[in-house]
Design goal:
about 140 residues
Length: about 140
């Protein structure tokens, strides 16, 4: 039987988990802005951002966006409290974020592809990190 004190995660794990939580918090904020921005607020934005905010996304897109960011944020909290269900939440977040980002890259003309690809890569990395943490018994 292993003692939980011998399976403490290294410092780098905590740093990555906190940075990942901040990353996902930015995603939650982006979702909240998109979901609750008013026409008056859009009018105050620069011209190129106005066009982006006025683009009508289908309902399923908004749903996968919400699932991606909220599951990702909850998974980061689960990492910080050392719960292995973080792994499953990261998988849901990855699937939803991938669907969302691929849709953006296909549907919207002239979208910069760097950020969508980076989002998918970060999601995949967090799945790996949580799986690694489970294998090392850092999270249970």
């Amino acid at each position: 039987m292993t003692n939980s004190s011998t399976n403490k995660p290294p410092v780098w794990f905590w740093i990555i988990a906190v940075v990942a939580l901040l990353w996902n918090a930015m995603g939650v904020m982006a979702y909240m802005v998109q979901a609750f921005i008013t026409d008056e607020m859009i009018a105050e934005l620069p011209q190129e951002q106005q066009a982006e905010m006025l683009y009508e996304h289908p309902a399923w897109y908004t749903s996968v966006f919400a699932l991606a960011v909220f599951c990702g944020a909850l998974a980061c909290i689960a990492l910080l409290i050392r719960k292995k269900w973080a792994y499953y939440l990261f998988i849901v977040s990855f699937i939803c974020a991938t669907v969302q980002q691929v849709y953006l890259m296909i549907e919207i003309e002239n979208v910069n592809k760097i950020m969508p690809i980076m989002i998918i890569v970060v999601c995949a990395f967090l799945i790996w990190l949580s799986k690694h943490a489970i294998s090392k018994a850092w999270i249970r």
